[in-house]
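User: I've been trying to design a sequence by hand for this structure and keep getting stuck. Would you show me what you'd pick, starting by listing the structure so we're on the same page?

Assistant: Good idea, let's start from the same input. This is the structure you sent:
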């Protein structure tokens, strides 16, 4: 039986939602994910304003209504008063996964010192992973490249459909039997000392 895999792409921008600004973040997420994530999947796209209650409702709709196993957002992760995407994500998530944000900031700091001001994060709602990305297209690509290896296994762990990477980015999954590459390597180091 073929599973209809759906991935949510949410641009959070007052100006883009009013048509005053051309959304570059949403198309950048779509292009990057199309190039690196498989098997085939259907995008579910939204462009919404920086309003916490609207962001929360959209995330709930994407996860619970649309059945997206992955929801990626762009915009609203900075320090300004209107930047409330992380707060909305935390409000609807069952669990937060701060490691995603830590890695994205680490990667972004190599390119721009103001990345320390960004508040990217991730959380789980049911069988869906929600990831908050920055708004700049080049930063979106850098961050996705960094976190994509962990996304398919995370979705496995929360009961979502089987995703994989289809490019030079390799998804991490522990080998059959449950031990990870890291654990195997540590055991070999300990036995040789």
């Amino acid at each position: 039986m073929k599973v209809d895999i759906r991935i949510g792409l949410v641009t959070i921008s007052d100006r883009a939602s009013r048509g005053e600004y051309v959304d570059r973040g949403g198309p950048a997420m779509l292009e990057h994910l199309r190039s690196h994530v498989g098997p085939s999947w259907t995008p579910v796209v939204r462009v919404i304003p920086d309003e916490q209650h609207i962001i929360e409702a959209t995330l709930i709709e994407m996860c619970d209504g649309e059945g997206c196993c992955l929801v990626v957002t762009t915009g609203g992760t900075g320090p300004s008063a209107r930047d409330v995407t992380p707060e909305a994500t935390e409000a609807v998530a069952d669990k937060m996964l701060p490691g995603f944000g830590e890695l994205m900031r680490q990667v972004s700091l190599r390119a721009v010192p103001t990345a320390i001001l960004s508040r990217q994060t991730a959380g789980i709602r049911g069988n869906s992973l929600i990831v908050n990305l920055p708004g700049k297209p080049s930063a979106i690509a850098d961050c996705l490249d960094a976190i994509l290896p962990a996304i398919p296994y995370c979705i496995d762990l929360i009961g979502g459909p089987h995703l994989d990477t289809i490019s030079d980015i390799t998804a991490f999954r522990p080998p059959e039997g449950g031990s990870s590459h890291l654990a195997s390597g540590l055991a070999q180091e300990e036995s040789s000392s």
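That's my pick for every position. To get oriented when you compare it with your attempt: The longest strand covers residues 6-12. The beta strands are 6-12, 37-38, 42-48, 70-74, 95-96, 122-125, 128-133, 164-165.
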